[in-house]
Amino acid sequence: MKPSAFPQDPGMNSYLFLFILFFVISPVNNAGPVQLTVNGPLHPVTASLSEDIVLRCHLSPRTSAENMEITWFRSQNSSYVHLYHSGKDHLEKQQPEYQGRTEILTDGIGDGKIGLRILNVSFFDEGQYHCSVKNRSFHQEAILDIKVAASGSSPLISIESYQEKGIYLVCRSWGWYPKPEVWWRDPSGRHLPSLSKEISQKNNGLFEVQKGILLTGSSNQPLTCVVRNILLNQEKGSTIHMADNLFTMISSWTAGLCVSLLISFGLVIAILYLINRNRKLITELSWRKMVVPIEKANVTLDPDTANHDLILSADQKNVIQGFMWNSLPDNPQRFDTERCVLGKEGFCSGRHYWEVEVGEDGYWAVGVARYSVKRKGRLSLDPDEGIWAVEKYWVQTVQYQALTIPQTPLPLRKRPRKLGIYLDYELEQVAFHDVNHKMHIFTFSSADFNEEKIFPFLHVGVGCWLRLRP
User: Fold this and answer.
1) What residues have CB less than 8 Å from 344, skipping those under 6 apart?
2) Contact at 8 Å (CB) between 244 and 162?
């Protein structure tokens, strides 16, 4: 037998085995614990206006979230969209805009799947959301984006006018969000050049589109107008077929008739315009007659009445809903639940006038209130509580109403930017005026002031600011 090239030492073999085992097992032993993360969708979630949507995030690796604290919120402040922990909803500080509109989906929560359903989506719901998960020392969150979209009406095609060079067609459609695309195309799908294009956003936030095209010569090919929502990847179209003999029918007498009709129509429009203008002028003169003799009151805000969520400027003229709860003394005058503040100056006689600038975003209510108005707990904004005000709110679209019992809708065509408030204590009247557009909005008659001092009253919604003007 041939001798081995290396001596067979049992001790050396043991050391060699342990050396190899150390390097094989060492990486496994040095690997840290798996990091738990919260993940959400990588792309924005599209929600259809007035419908429901479900926002989702999940734990990775798969871990039960049943006993964790789950918070859905939009900004770092004391209120939230929805809070869930210990198997229950906790909605004490839920944002007012979401009350009765959210629910946590618990079907997959044992596997780390977290879902939030938002009912009846409005434009207010568009934006960024945070899905926050806490458990002892663990705290992570995912960020999601919501895009709101609405599919409008099928296009309406009409012959607008007969011109020397041909026939002018107009395609109209409304009820779209965001701003849609619109075009004319022939049967081969080729886009045709248009003569005019208008896209406007109405007071309800939805877009209306209008696109015109001039047809010259005769054509027996159908033309299609298409409007497309990019977010929903949806389009609606309408087709019109122009007969060959239509162009030859435009004789001289037809053209003359069209001109006559257009002139007559123009006269009717002019008369209606003058009547409407005179009516507005009468209303404006009536308002000015009531207000002009009155010197504007220099009103400021009373910080002792301001809710903890409100931030007042140094000159006590501006107020905004803050992003954190302020530690303020809970005196009897302070509103502890509603985001309200009163003016520092009150009135118990005479006539007074002041103005309030309102921001474009968020909810607000502006008016006057009795000194005895309720300061603690939930508050009903109506004359029975000693409040006479008008408000802006959201129900699918921006709406305005006077806070009567029941509320009185205010069909304002233009959004007010500055409100004039007129108080006549002896006549017990509170009137509101759109300063920029010079329009009377609403008047409370026979207001029961109960011989109390009356103060300016502001209710400030999320993301809203208000400014007093002398």
Assistant:
1) 299, 300, 301, 302, 316
2) no
